[in-house]
# Entry
Amino acid sequence: MEKTVSINTRVDEPTKSAARHVLEDLGMNLSQGIVLFLRQVVFKGGIPFDIKLPNVPNKETERALEEAERGEGLRSVSSVDELFKELNACEDNLDTEVQERLRANT
# Structure
């Protein structure tokens, strides 16, 4: 077995305590959990889980949501068939717009 070394790190008490409880429930202590994390970093070649920002809507989506809440730009349909017909028409329009943009960029 290889010689082990110590790592010192600082973390707030609530995080340490919560992590310790979770790891104990999994049958390990804090040190074993940290070693497991470090081994996974090596095994995966990076952080072993996704790190991303919370799912926050961008400005365009925020604007669309606000308009919908005010009832602006909403349309009604009388049936599911009518809904799909409109959705397919929107998709066709988007395909045409994308094709035109591609042609303009070449």
